[in-house]
Amino acid sequence: MHVTAIADVMTRDPVTIDSDALAVEAARLMETRKINALLVLDAQRRVVGALNVHDLLRARVV
Questions:
Q1: What is the reported pLDDT for 2?
Q2: pTM of this prediction?
Q3: Is 2 helix (H, G, I), strand (E, B) or coil?
Q4: Residue 2 lies in a domain
Q5: What share of the chain is helix, strand, coil (3-state, %, to 5)?
Q6: Which value, to the nearest 10 degrees, does the dihedral of the CA atoms of residues 26, 23, 27, 9 take?
């Protein structure tokens, strides 16, 4: 069993998007940054969710 701490493998500065952004903006951001997930922030900059490319595919955005 591996004993690697999450802090050693996590993304320290995750890419985020505002919860009121359009789905197409999220898709463009993921493509530009070559990533497959974003943290979603509310107006107070709190994490309210996560969005990944599969969510966009399921919604037929991409």
A1: 84
A2: 0.86
A3: coil
A4: no
A5: 35, 25, 45
A6: 50
